[in-house]
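Give me the 3D structure for Regulator of protease activity HflC (Stomatin/prohibitin superfamily).
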Amino acid sequence: MVESKAWYMNGYAALLLALVSFVGGIALIIGGASTEDPSAALIVAGVLLFIVFIITVSSLVIVQPNEAKIITFFGSYKGTVRDSGLWMVVPFTNKSKVSLKVRNFNSQTLKVNDEEGNPIEIGAVVVYKVKDTAKASFDVDNYEKFVAIQSETAIRHIAAHYPYDSYDSEPTPSLRGNADEVATELMNELQHRLNVAGVQVIETRLSHLAYAQEIASAMLQRQQAIAIVAARQKIVEGAVGMVDAALQQLEASGITLDDERRAAMVNNLMVAIVSDRAATPVINAGSLYS
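Predicted structure for Regulator of protease activity HflC (Stomatin/prohibitin superfamily) (290 residues):
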């Protein structure tokens, strides 16, 4: 079912008509019954005004800002009133309220397996609002519960298509390294799932991402090892550059070293620079060739 605009008119005019009908009906009934010869015509006219009052009052509806009223007449959908204010609609209709405010859904921390089969914990925040009041009211039983269930289903589905992190030399998309892309894909899939409920997804963000407890310690050691290897690689690259600069500076100063002394100097400099401990100098009192 698709939302349509209901018929409505200014409610203040209808309220004035209701007051006039109520006061006029009382006056006609009292006037017709207080005379020595009761006037049936005045009494009937007063009753008719009371009927007009009841019909008019039953047609009044108040719509608050960021709210809509669903108008149904004996089970038939007649439309939706979105404009805030006091309005007159079709009499004797049911007027149910639907909020149009922006809402947040914070999912529970879900335990799922990523693309590599590692158990991870993941959660997300979904920002949404009702776009089609007819679908939200009639096509699903409870659109808030529908959003909650479909959001968790979409989170599980997206998490299974990405690894937690990328450890290859050529980075691949991952949950940790590509949070924005994952959130965008989650929003697109969730919007596709929630179209049937007339809900518009405004934004999705991952609110929690971590390894499950049973593998967290092992994965932390793996991350530390990768970080140490990367750091060592940077240190070695820097050390090679520093040794090369030192040799070039010696040659520019006119100090010439043969191959054996050059190799010894390179070895000493590399050990001093790359070592994770302070170097201990050793004084060689003899000759390198002795």
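Residues 261 and 288 are 8 Å apart (CA to CA). Let me know if you want a second pass.
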